[in-house]
Amino acid sequence: MIKYRVVKNRRNEFTNPITVNKNQKVACIEESDDGDWGGWVLCKTEDNEGWIPHQIIKRQGEKGSILEDYCAIEFNLEVGEVLVMEKELNGWIWCYKEGEPKIKAWAPLNHIEKKTQMIETERLILRPIKPLDFNDYCDMLCDDKVYIWLGNRKRRTPEEVEKLMDYFINHLKERGYGVLGVICKETGKLIGHAGANYIKSLDSIEYLYALNSKEWNKGYATEIGRGYLEYFKNNYDYKKLIALAYPQNQRSVNVLKKLGFVNEGRKEMFENMLDYFELSLERVDNPLT
Known about the structure:
Residues 124-282 form the N-acetyltransferase domain. By secondary structure, the chain is an alpha+beta fold. The protein is 19% helix and 38% strand.
């Protein structure tokens, strides 16, 4: 579930939007390949005409057959409104306004922007990782007290740190959720990372975190976890998260249990057997609810 905030007012001028059904036959009048309107076909039915995305039309000359149900209804937009996207098509999103999931329509991408992920707790801020975080990130990931519990347990070179940062930045852009930088309010420095990362081999979304060893024993791990997991539960429509930890890393195991994760055995990752945890985001006894 990806949310957008309206940044420009818009009034829908089309009071009679075209509606077509799967397998319906239409006349194709013209096709647009100009700028934001690229990929649209002006179609005519027995009682209406309007623009339809080319992806849902099988054209045969001046005629076409509709491949799926489609309605061109559009929202009126007010600055500050929050839209929840269901799909994106040719510069538009099919969505509903937050709190009104039964009423759906299209909204143009040039009038909205993705809500920036920023989570604030009592002492910390979680926000997208930025290139300016490089030195602080290197300081954490090159600390043997930290990297011994991460991934393949090897010290990362500066080039590998930069590559990991790029991965997390791109993952967030592509999937709408991701791993964020953890910023200490008092110092303004990045002291760790935390968030959700898709693991292809497990076809699951993993919750993960790491902190600079100088910041251990301050209760930050639990504070981060509660803040991020509450945010994730309220903003994304996923049923569960998983987590992985080296069995010897009792600190992380304890934190995960405190956050409500349940040990479901072990999984082989990074040529090691790791403790495997799951957190249901819809359980009645979920501590986040």
